[in-house]
């Protein structure tokens, strides 16, 4: 069995390993609040959110002597309060097929997340179709085919460099013909040419709406937690080029930057549908605010 990771959470760092006795009492004063703010900022929560969280936590309690354990629980509760409203599993519509467009920069974990989602829905008895819409990246297409095989889900592809919108249209037709429950559409993530990407995404949306005026039903933005505060900038950009309806945060396993999720919740209020916690097909977890806050403050 692994020993507990002592001293690695925020409080371990604040009070030191040996001193972090749960019953040790400390005064909740300005110095203490400042230390807590620094810790939250170091965990990539961003200044505004860190200040809001600590000041909410201190309200009506300033000058009180509290045990380290109490402080930890109060802070976790405050963080949890920010996260609670955005923790929403991907909504499932009666619509067949439900069309989910997946966007995000290359490397964020789009392909992996699509594989994981396909596997989860397939295991839940849904018929799933994947469209490998990043037709310019042969590696992404191959990767999706591997995921599709593992999940037992068909992956529609098109020749390298061909029009992603035409693939999306064909995938839509096939998903409708087969009465599939879910169509997951991968997209390109080349932010270097934002205008091109915007037009490409708009065209995909336009053609799938010929088949279903309400599609896509969800536009998932996949973000890499290890990029820290950069994730906030990515949300800003992608909200300009696509109608982002929710987020998936990947690579939360083994990063100290998970605090960015709190900043995202605080700033944008977009639903966080799931979190990626590893590279394997089952490593997609529902987002649990309490568990997350407890782990962050740990
Ligand atoms: P894409 O370019 O956006 O399609 O990104 P990929 O899905 O190819 O993922 C990029 C890299 O991140 C790959 O090496 C994945 O195995 C890895 N990855 C994706 N999601 C996670 C996750 O939740 N945890 C970890 N540790 N790695 C991940």
Automatic annotation (TrEMBL):
Catalyses which reaction(s): GTP + H2O = GDP + phosphate + H(+)
Tell me the membrane topology, using the record's own terms.
Peripheral membrane protein
Q: GO MF annotations for this entry?
A: GTP binding; GTPase activity; signal recognition particle binding
Biological process terms in GO annotation: SRP-dependent cotranslational protein targeting to membrane
Positions binding GTP in this chain are: 104-111, 186-190, 250-253
Q: What sequence ranges are listed for the domain AAA+ ATPase?
A: 96-242
Q: Which keywords has UniProt assigned to this entry?
A: Cell membrane, Cytoplasm, GTP-binding, Hydrolase, Membrane, Nucleotide-binding, Receptor
EC numbers listed for it are 3.6.5.4
A GO CC annotation recorded here is:
cytoplasm
Say which domain of life the source belongs to. Answer: Bacteria
- Report domain Signal recognition particle SRP54 helical bundle positions: 10-83
Which compartment or compartments is the protein found in?
Cell inner membrane; Cell membrane; Cytoplasm
Which top class of enzyme applies to this chain?
hydrolase
What positions does the domain SRP54-type proteins GTP-binding occupy? 97-298
Family statement drawn from the similarity comment of this UniProt entry: Belongs to the GTP-binding SRP family. FtsY subfamily.
The record's note on quaternary structure and interaction partners says: Part of the signal recognition particle protein translocation system, which is composed of SRP and FtsY. SRP is a ribonucleoprotein composed of Ffh and a 4.5S RNA molecule.
Q: What does this protein do?
A: Involved in targeting and insertion of nascent membrane proteins into the cytoplasmic membrane. Acts as a receptor for the complex formed by the signal recognition particle (SRP) and the ribosome-nascent chain (RNC). Interaction with SRP-RNC leads to the transfer of the RNC complex to the Sec translocase for insertion into the membrane, the hydrolysis of GTP by both Ffh and FtsY, and the dissociation of the SRP-FtsY complex into the individual components.
Protein's UniProt name: Signal recognition particle receptor FtsY
Which lineage?
A: Bacteria, Pseudomonadati, Pseudomonadota, Alphaproteobacteria, Rhodobacterales
Gene name, please? ftsY
